[in-house]
Amino acid sequence: MTGAHVRIDNRLIHGQVTVAWTRRLGVRRLVVCNDDVAADELQCLLLPQAARGLPTDVLSVEATLAAEPGGDTMIIAKHPEDVFRLVEGGLRPEVVNVGNVAPRPGEKSTMVTRSAAVTADEADAYRKLAATGVPLVTQLLPQDKPADFVSLLDRKGL
Fold first, then answer.
1. 14 is catalytic
2. Catalytic position from the list 11, 14, 52, 127
3. Which of 32, 36, 107, 156 is the most buried (most CB within 10 A)?
4. How far apart are CA 21 and CA 41, in angstroms?
5. Residue-wise pLDDT tens for the chain (158 aa)?
């Protein structure tokens, strides 16, 4: 299963996604992918409203795989573990873009970029994902130059 654009962004749906990325990539559908978010009725109600009219589904990892997202779909995963499970389930994105990853409250994290905080456990999850052969980049906005995310983890000693 190939084609869908994949972004790790724990802010989920916001202006960078709905304005910049959807236009640049020709996205016609958003899928928020995270088991906890999909189980939260309030988030399932509010997130599609934040998508500025773009058809939006809030799904578990398993339901995302069953939906067979295509090339006009952007999957927004909350955590790297979500994307690893998608890849284990057969999704083969050309690249995974690490976007906004705010620090998790109560956890020690390191700012890898100006918009991506990573804990030691998350660094392990990113490396596990990269080991599947899926390239990981960080590119906040389409006009920014993509940077290899694993190299940035290396530079920060993660």
1. yes
2. 14
3. 32
4. 26
5. 566 899 999 999 998 888 899 999 999 999 999 999 999 999 999 999 999 899 999 999 999 999 988 889 999 999 999 999 999 999 999 999 999 999 988 999 999 999 999 999 999 999 999 999 999 999 999 999 999 999 999 999 99
| Residue whose token pair is 């398993």 | 62
Angle at 145 (CA atoms; ends 157, 80), nearest 5 degrees: 50
| Amino acid of residue 4 | A
Distance CA 55, CA 59 (A): 13
Could you give phi then psi for residue 49, rounded to 5 degrees? -70, -30
Instruction: Report how far residue 87's alpha carbon sits from residue 73's, in angstroms, rounded to the nearest whole number.
Output: 16
What's the rounded Cα separation, in Å, for the pair 126 and 83?
9
State how far the Cα of 118 lies from the Cα of 102, in Å rounded to an integer: 8
How large is the angle between the packed helices 80-88 and 120-130, nearest 10 degrees? 30
Closest Cα to residue 77, out of 46, 55, 101? Answer: 101
Contact 150, 136 (CB under 8 A): yes
